[in-house]
Structures
1.
Amino acid sequence: MPVTTFANHKGGVGKSNEVEGVAAELAMRGRRVLAVDLDPQGNLSRRMGYQEHELETRPTIAEAVRDHTPKALRASFLPCQWEQDWAENITLVPSRIELEERISEAGVPLSWQRLHKCLAPLAGDFDDVLIDTPPTIGHLLHLALVASDYVVGATTPTYDSVRGIYRLKNFIENEDQRAGLGLRCRMIGVVINMKRAGVANHDQRTEALITRFGDLVWPPHLPLRASVEDASERAEPPQNAGPEVQQIFRDRVDRYMKAVA
Ligand SMILES: Nc1ncnc2c1ncn2[C@@H]1O[C@H](COP(=O)(O)OP(=O)(O)O)[C@@H](O)[C@H]1O
Ligand SMILES: [Mg+2]
């Protein structure tokens, strides 16, 4: 059961959008996907069909990490609310603002293993686990990375966002961090999102990423499209933005499948 974290030390770059698109394409292929919202903002949860007030009185990822048992994780499961083909293959672990409280546990010995302890015993229940993360390199990202086999960086072709990917990669590859946290994950891809045609800066940043990361950069790049934002506003998968976006996520999932095979 490959576990993959989607991350960047930068917000608003399309991390959640990427998790949605990959989850939707995997589900279309008949794979059973567990989508874990590990961002206290709960954007993935909202876009998979659950408003904040609907999550107030039920278990979420916050309680699962607190109790760090597979039972607590299972208690948080919700069906994705998209159309049928997608929905029946995607299970959501929702998030709400209370997840912020877990950050105070960062100093507790082995607290960084708590998500891994929830997930590892579920091996076999899902074909893919995708973790959406906040734009920080702190305790919540540590929880995700410790639980993960693979990492995909999501970025816009802009200076600060690309810097965020460099910091993420440096963190994952730092020997002290790997030993201290017990990381085994490795980066399998960098995806470029919100690219605008005819913008010289976007072309330069894209080239710089390819120079630095080579084959790790997964083409094709997702262009900036109002229809993608509209889909997320409506709590629909990005695939509803049309055939161009559908094809991009097909290609990305081909790359993903090769990497995790
Ligand atoms: N290719 C795109 N074109 C237009 N808007 C996009 C695109 N990708 C994402 N967005 C929008 O940009 C915003 C930030 O994306 P999101 O996935 O929430 O980023 P992050 O999770 O990194 O904060 C959201 O409103 C989303 O709908
Ligand atoms: Mg997000």
2.
Amino acid sequence: MAMMDHDIIIIGAGPAGLSFARAMAETKLDILLIEKQPESVLADPPYDGREIALTHLSHKIMNELGMWGLVPEEHISLIKTAKVMNGHSPYALSFDHTEVGEENLGFMISNHRIRKAAYDSVKDYPNVTFLNEVTVSKVDTDDDKGWVELSNGERLEAPLIIAADSRFSNTRRMMGISTNLLDFGRTCIVCTMEHELPHNDTAYECFHYDRTVAVLPLNNGQVSVVMTLTSEEDTDVLAMDEQEFSDDVAQRIDHKFGNLKLSSKRYPYPLVSTLAKTFCANRFGLIGDAAVGMHPVTAHGFNLGLRGAQTLAHELQNTLQSDGSFAPNIALERYSRKHRKHCLPLYHGTNALVRLYATTEYRTAKFARKALLRLGNHIKPAKRFIMNQLTEIKDI
Ligand SMILES: Cc1cc2nc3c(=O)[nH]c(=O)nc-3n(C[C@H](O)[C@H](O)[C@H](O)COP(=O)(O)OP(=O)(O)OC[C@H]3O[C@@H](n4cnc5c(N)ncnc54)[C@H](O)[C@@H]3O)c2cc1C
């Protein structure tokens, strides 16, 4: 094979791209990460309001990749109980850590701390380099290689190109991979709040008819609040003064935490979920949100990104020869098949759940919402299934 600039080019050094680079770093393959943000931002990412709920499988993968130990312990919070509520009804679908025999159901870490840990875990590998403050203006592949053309005019070649450039991936589009895009016409506002009553490590998801509010336990007297509302309403809610907003959230969750006080900026995110029709093409793979961009209500996005990064890394390593050559297309196809099989039910299930809980129109939907919570509590296999999706304990 002709000499190439790198063995693997990864486009996008977000949490998925960095995790994949780290998962491949020990192979000694020459890996290049192309990222439009400056390296100083990767080294010290700003807070973005996202508090990420992580499963036990993600804990295990982050441990194996040396990322977990790089997050200071005081910034890792535990979820021990989770309750799903329908409006102001006191009835809840409940999950408790004792049912899975673990200390907790899951973990909470801020997105910026995950990004920092992922960067710190990979930055010192001599075979991993960064090219920052450039974007990819063209990408293509042929039988022998893939290549990218950059905004600075440079052209780089590698046997394998991986896109980790977000759910709105431009390079996925350039490669002609079509994508299902579901715009919910809603916005998610995230922030942290101080609370008066103890949260007891309990996460609440309250589905109201116009808005949903999730409250997730954090350390140091804080909770993370995730509110979804129609995009028409978001300007008004963002414009509320701090007291009005705090009182509104407290009332929507029936004062379960007593008085609340806003303790961060409010960060709006448009709610759009995406699913690429395939996760691979010739010498080209999609990982992270570029493969599947989840609605945050079931907190699966990065958990899936991490699992996918590890799956692809394993498949590539399985084809790696002692001379450093590898079989990208075989690995990509195996990865795409395995990862899609795992993602598809979660993607469609999450979207169906969102539709059911966002509708105000149909009596049957209202009935189904109530019934679902009761079935979830009383039908043991259903409960076990949901519990495993929440914790991914069985997948360890
Ligand atoms: C409100 C909210 C709450 C969430 N909560 C959870 C949760 O509880 N649990 C969970 O698992 N997930 C959660 N997620 C999802 C999680 O944040 C994402 O899945 C994860 O951040 C995706 O990582 P990524 O690396 O694939 O993409 P991104 O984080 O989007 O990173 C993409 C990177 O690519 C770079 N880039 C883009 N285009 C180019 C280009 N052309 N050239 C070079 N670089 C480029 C960007 O600068 C960026 O660094 C949540 C998401 C939101 C919005």
